[in-house]
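<context>
A single protein, sequence plus fold
<sample>
Here is the protein in question:
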Amino acid sequence: MRRQENFYDVIILGSGLGGLIAANQLIQERRNVLLIKEKRFHPSYTREGYRFTPFSNAFEKWIPTHFLQKIPFQLDRSGKRGGGERPKQEVSFQIILPQARIDLYRDRSLLRREWKREFPLEWKKVEVFYQETDRIYDLLTQLKQRESSPVSFPIRSSRSIKEWLFFNSFSIKRLEHWLSPFSPEFKTSVQLQMLFKGNLYKSHFPLSLASYLLKSDDPEETIERFDFEKITQQMLGRFVQSGGRVEAIDGIDKINVKRRKGISISLKGQGPMVHSRLLALNVPMHQCLNLFENKGKIISKWAEKIRPLYAVIPYFLGIRETGIPVGMKNLLISLQHLDGSYEDGNLLLLSLSDLKDESEAPLGRRALTVQAFMPFKPSERTTFRSLQNEVMNHLKQLFPFLENHLEFIDRTWAENHLDCWSYPFFAYEVNSPFDWRKGVVPIELTKNLFFVGKENFPYLGLEGEIIGGLVLGRKMLNHLN
């Protein structure tokens, strides 16, 4: 049966990071794997010598080395730009608020200096807050070291139940409780860090989760410029070289899941159906709702628990280097109005290309990727042009005399890609309680249907996608053995 044409052990729908990690694990174990990707979706955009790559969170631009070390096969990272060993990055990113401009140094002594400068009336309280989060992070690390699985957080085993009975006495406390005595500027800066490191829009976080995310920048660890497209292309190449098959398609007509007979998928305009024992969905869950002849209720059940609140819309700008304000970092988040919603250009995620990096922008120019939040509901969706106007009004506050330094602004990539079923750039909201140590959406939905994507561990961002891929590969191998 396994040798029949168009029959596979595993089909993975989508070419996201988690699915690629699992696909390579499976193919190394000599499993017959088909990876299906969308023809229309392109992960980057080039124009006039500029190269832009959209992103959902900070770690899709600068990634700690321990994230990549979790992937169980060697990746070629020899193409680091600039030659030689890249120095450690002092600043993870910068937050610009109406009354504050905070450089988030990875070195705690430098960050303490920043607290004194930006929060002179409360910096001692700020220091106590971070001392408490450090203490919780250290306990998390100690508990994790006792776990049998080396994958990462979340933590869940019977052996640590006694420790968790003690740990939960403060881990269940909410972040907003600890932040209540602070100024709106400091509270907002912490909330934006939580959002920018993951893909979850949430006003209530357990202090244990906040402690993990706030401490995830180890000053002793190198953080590398992360070319997301290059890494995924390496994984695809490795997968094909090892015997895996990749099929680029326009779309899917239907998916039929039967417990004993396996999976059948009808591809648009592709001739015969393809079949497999197991199927993994590696596309946003809300994009899967209408694909199934059966099992649709299972997908709907989990899609109700986590929904996109905002689509993250990228705009690409070419700027002359002389237009970049002094002190502006390469990665930053800017909020114009503290008490306003994140949409209509109020919140921007920005990434500047490296200075003098001609692979990303012509000499004397910088590529600027600006991402804004658009309500996900179609009935509330603003037009790309009206959102662009709001984005430009915000940018003019950050870049004085922007029009004198602007080469172009391009929104065509976003217009062409937002309706792709592979489009991965969303900020999610969770509509029911969940245990962050177990995740939101389970990786194994049924005995032969799996899901891996940003919705598994949305609060962990890129690390969550890596975790999902590792767990998915392991679970599928267990089913096939």
Q: What stands out?
A: The chain has 13 helices and 19 strands. The CA atoms of residues 101 and 373 lie 21 Å apart. Residues 123-145 form the longest helix (23 residues).
